[in-house]
Structures are given as structure tokens and as C-alpha cells.
Amino acid sequence: RKEVEQDPGPFNVPEGATVAFNCTYSNSASQSFFWYRQDCRKEPKLLMSVYSSGNEDGRFTAQLNRASQYISLLIRDSKLSDSATYLCVVNPLSGGYNKLIFGAGTRLAVHP
Amino acid sequence: DTAVSQTPKYLVTQMGNDKSIKCEQNLGHDTMYWYKQDSKKFLKIMFSYNNKELIINETVPNRFSPKSPDKAHLNLHINSLELGDSAVYFCASSQDLRAGGSGEQYFGPGTRLTVT
């Protein structure tokens, strides 16, 4: 089983749609969680951290369910500029150090 | 002002050659990383240095040797390049969790290595 699993997509949605991405992780001791965004031929960039209570940043909402080892990202009112690959990222805090484990990513394509 | 920079951006070389990639960060972070992203776009950590000390060394061939002259720089030297080394190599940095960092990592623009 992969340490972080995501649906690879692609998700093809029209502008204005709401889209949800899911992610599961295998290490129950993982301590911190993130969603990163990667545009084609670019570096990954932090989109948002994911907190146990759930958190929102504009059109983006992230949820964490520690019992199910499940993370989600909801994008409302999709824009063309949201087209990218979304990477679910888990930090198992190996040896007390920061070590990010990346999922393979979910591709989103928003069309007019 | 570039936070994490890498050189070169593109590197095309032949099998058997030795090459280096350089990384510098001006964020004041004390931890730096090298990642490899292969053709399937899977991003995997290779090495991590904290204050010039190697702390993470994943299963990477000995041909790959990282060097950190100071905490703002982390270079990657690759000996005897092979076709399978073709990938995008990303450098990243973060603030140590023990120093109040949140675990977020900031990535450089990547070095696209093609071995022919």
C-alpha cells in the first residue's frame, strides 16, 4: 500500500463547478498535512495546511479525519486558473525531522 | 527576490558523465532537501540536511552525493550518469520543526536533467 494515495484523475469540470479531491494515508502517527499545487513544468507550491478542525481559505476548504486517515480538498466556484495537479502531502515526522510524503497528485482541468 | 534557486534549469548530458546541481535559499531556513520527480510525476525525497548535517538519506544509489557547505546551500553531485537518472530534481527548504517551523517546504524551480 502506498503511503499516500490519491485518485489521479483527471477531473474535467466547467468553470463555476465545485470539485472535491480525496486522499488517504497509511501512517497513523503522521502529524501534519498539506495540499500543494503543481502547475505543468513548475515546482510544487503550498496551497494550504490541513488542520484537524478543518480550515478554509477563500474558495478552498480542507478537512482531516484522523480516525479514517483521510484528507480532502474542496474547491468551490472553480476558475480556469485552478487547472493544475493537486498534491496531498503528509508529514510523518520521521525521527523528529520534517519529511514530506507526497501523493502522486490529482489532475484538475477547468474548462470554459 | 527568489527564495529557493537552482542552477542549472536544464541539463542535457551523456551517459557516464558526472554533473552537479546547485541550490541556494535565502529564507533563513535550516533544513534543505533534494527531491526527484520522475516521468510519472511522482515526487520522492532523496536527501535532507539540517544545519549542514545529513538527516535523511533515502534509498539512493551511491552515485548521488549531496554536499552542504553551509545551511543556505545544498548541492547534488551525480557520478556516472545513467538513462534512468533523467528526471526533474527539486531542491526545497523549510524551518526546523524544533525551531518553530510548521513543516511547510518551499521548492526551487527544478532542474530538468536529460541523460542521453
**Gap between N and C termini of chain B, in Å?**
34 Å
Name the helix and strand elements of chain A from N-terminus to C-terminus, one letter apiece.
EEEEEEEEEEE
* Rounded Rg of chain B: 14 Å
Strand composition percent of chain B? over 45%
> Could you list the spans of chain B in which at least 5 consecutive residues all have pLDDT below 50?
none
Largest interface: pair, residues per side: A-B, 24 and 26 residues
Number of alpha- plus pi-helical segments of chain A: 0
Overall shape of chain B: globular
Percent of residues in β-strands of chain A:
over 45%
How many β-strand runs of chain B? 11
Low-confidence stretches of chain A: none
The biggest sheet of chain A amounts to: 6 strands, mixed
Averaging pLDDT over every residue of chain B, what do you get? Answer: 91
Structural class of chain B: mainly beta
Global mean pLDDT of chain A? 92
| Element order of chain B: H for helix, E for strand | EEEEEEEEEEE
What's the story with the biggest beta sheet of chain B?
7 strands, mixed
The share of residues in helices of chain A is under 10%
Instruction: Report the end-to-end length of chain A measured between terminal Cα atoms.
Output: 37 Å
The tally of strands of chain A reads 11
Q: Roughly what percent helix of chain B?
A: under 10%
List the helices and strands and how they pair.
The complex is a heterodimer of chains A (112) and B (116).
Chain A: E1 4-6, E2 11-14, E3 19-25, E4 32-38, E5 44-50, E6 55-57, E7 60-65, E8 70-75, E9 84-91, E10 101-102, E11 106-111
Chain B: E1 4-7, E2 10-13, E3 19-25, E4 31-37, E5 43-50, E6 53-57, E7 64-70, E8 73-78, E9 87-94, E10 106-107, E11 111-115
Parallel strand pairs in B: 2-11
Antiparallel strand pairs in B: 1-3, 3-8, 4-5, 4-9, 5-6, 7-8, 9-10, 9-11
Question: Keyphrases for this structure?
Answer:
heterodimer, A: 112 residues, mainly beta, six-stranded mixed β-sheet, five-stranded antiparallel β-sheet, 0% helix, 53% strand, B: 116 residues, seven-stranded mixed β-sheet, four-stranded antiparallel β-sheet
